[in-house]
Design a protein that fits this description.
Order of helices and strands: EHEHEHEHHHEHEHHHEEE
CATH class of the largest domain: Alpha Beta
Number of strands: 9
Helix content: 25-40%
Bound molecules: adenosine monophosphate
Radius of gyration: 19 Å
Largest sheet: 6 strands, parallel
CATH superfamily of the largest domain: HUPs
CATH architecture of the largest domain: 3-Layer(aba) Sandwich
Strand content: 15-25%
Number of helices: 10
Number of domains: 2
């Protein structure tokens, strides 16, 4: 496993890879969710590149950039047994050299959900992912359904900018009690960690009602909100019912639906989602 940081070392490493290359972009502090992406990339390509970069431009001024968990040695030890070829760990100075002024923005898809709560977040995401694509030239790029809007936005960018690669979106990996794996789960104290599976229970209750024939969003919302508000440690920021493709809010469920939510446990903000239909 080659571990490279500079752009020139990355280019040399990339040139040595022949055949299909799978890319897994991450911010590190890896967990089983990230590793599932790496395993799928390994199964579908001759080579795998993993990037580890806590991208400053996707964090808002009051967000957790400086506190974001980092442990490169631990991450490398998790990646070694998976047969990863190259790990690229660029610095912020490499990705954003002095006088940097070029940005990639996806318009309508970034207006709602996470985009509404985190202004500028997706501008940072699409810009860095475009740069990672340019530098690593992957055949396929792997993302998690855990970040549903991110996957939709990057899919749009790939189409709009003609990136010659295939997007692969992998299912959300969960802890045994249903909590979606996330690097941010580390921030939860014991009581918050015990309370956090309410997110998946609420999403699952909506899925059950949908499968029993309920098609009114108001009814699903009420069911979810009653479960979420019954948990005193959970502070709901939003629960949204949107069309899976356009991410526009719906009232009556007709096609494929994305239910997504953002909930605070203390200072820790967790997101999760489920797809119906
Ligand atoms: P991050 O390091 O949080 O930026 O995540 C890197 C990639 O891993 C993104 O494509 C995420 O959607 C994906 N990911 C994060 N958590 C999970 C999870 N629990 N299951 C599947 N994929 C995940």
């Amino acid at each position: 496993m080659q571990i490279v940081s500079s752009l020139s070392d990355l280019r040399t490493a990339r040139l040595s890879l022949e055949g299909k290359v799978g890319l897994v972009p991450t911010m590190g502090y890896l967990h089983e969710g990230h590793l599932s992406l790496v395993r799928q990339a390994k199964a579908e390509n001759q080579h795998v590149i993993v990037t580890i970069f806590v991208n400053p431009t996707q964090f808002g001024p009051s967000e957790d950039l400086s506190k974001y968990p980092r442990d490169l040695e631990r991450d490398l030890n998790l990646l070694r047994p998976l047969g990863v070829d190259v790990v690229w760990t660029p610095t912020a100075e490499i990705m954003y050299p002095p006088s940097y002024q070029t940005w990639v923005e996806v318009e309508a898809l970034t207006k709602g959900l996470e985009g509404a709560m985190r202004p500028g977040h997706f501008k940072g995401v699409t810009t860095v992912v475009a740069k990672l694509f340019n530098a690593t030239q992957p055949t396929k790029a792997y993302f998690g359904q855990k970040d549903a809007q991110q996957a939709a936005v990057i899919r749009r960018m790939v189409l709009d900018l003609n990136f010659p690669l295939e997007m692969v979106v992998c299912p959300t990996m969960r802890e045994a009690d249903g909590l979606a794996m996330s690097s941010r789960n580390k921030y939860l104290n014991e009581a918050e960690r015990k309370a956090a599976p309410v997110l998946f229970r609420a999403l699952s209750a909506a899925k059950e009602a949908y499968e029993a024939g309920e098609r009114q969003v108001a009814a699903l919302r009420e069911k979810m909100m009653s479960m979420l508000t019954a948990e005193p440690l959970a502070q709901v920021q939003y629960v949204a019912f949107t069309d899976f493709d356009t991410l526009e809010e719906v009232e009556l469920i007709q096609g494929k639906l994305l239910i997504s939510l953002a909930v605070f446990f203390g200072k820790t903000r967790l997101i999760d989602n489920i797809v119906l239909g």
